[in-house]
């Protein structure tokens, strides 16, 4: 994060106001950031990493006409057994990942939710079972 102006900009956006001596002391491990500063540094690092990963992730997911994902229905373990519905997992080929990855890279949960709902809206009448996603995993 200290090797580019962009890293410093992300640190500043996350509320880290430092002078060069303090950063040099952190890098030399003479001093350590406070727990609050560590959380802010982690947030700045995650934001910068997402920004840097987005173009290659988009390119990889869009290659060969898109990427197929497995979608599992909502977790019903807390639902009374007499009210549970049988739901199977589904395959869906996503052809254009650009808006999804862009929303992810900005940490824009509202837009990410909107993009996901648009993607799954054609899964027939049971599409609401697949509306809430806790994570997506990609096999490398």
Order of strands across the widest beta sheet?
1-2
- What's the order of the H and E elements? HHHEEHH
Structural class of the helix and strand makeup?
mainly alpha
Question: What is the number of E strands?
Answer: 2
Secondary structure: helix percent:
40-55%
**Which shape, going by the Cα principal axes?**
elongated
Radius of gyration: 20 Å
Largest sheet: 2 strands, antiparallel
Number of helices: 5
Low-confidence stretches: none
Determine the mean pLDDT: 83
What is the beta-strand fraction? Answer: 5-15%
Distance between the termini: 26 Å
Give an overview of the whole structure.
- The protein has 140 residues and is mainly α.
- The chain is built from five helices and two strands.
- Strands 1-2 form a two-stranded antiparallel ribbon.
- Helix 1 crosses helix 3 and helix 4 packs antiparallel against helix 5.
- The mean pLDDT is 83.
Topology:
Elements: H1 5-13, H2 20-27, H3 35-62, E1 67-71, E2 90-94, H4 98-105, H5 109-120
Antiparallel strand pairs: 1-2
State the main characteristics:
140 residues; two-stranded antiparallel sheet; 5 helices
């Amino acid at each position: 994060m200290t090797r580019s102006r962009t890293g410093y900009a992300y640190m500043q956006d996350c509320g880290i106001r430092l002078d060069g001596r303090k950063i040099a002391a952190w890098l030399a491990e003479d001093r350590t950031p406070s727990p609050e500063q560590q959380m802010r540094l982690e947030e700045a690092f995650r934001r910068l990493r997402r920004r840097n990963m987005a173009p290659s992730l988009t390119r990889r997911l869009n290659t060969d006409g898109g990427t197929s994902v497995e979608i599992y229905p909502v977790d019903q373990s807390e639902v009374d057994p007499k009210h549970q519905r049988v739901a199977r997992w589904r395959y869906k080929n996503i052809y254009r990942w650009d808006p999804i990855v862009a929303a992810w890279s900005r940490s824009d949960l509202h837009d990410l939710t909107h993009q996901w709902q648009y993607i799954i809206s054609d899964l027939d009448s049971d599409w609401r079972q697949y509306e809430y996603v806790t994570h997506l995993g990609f096999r490398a």
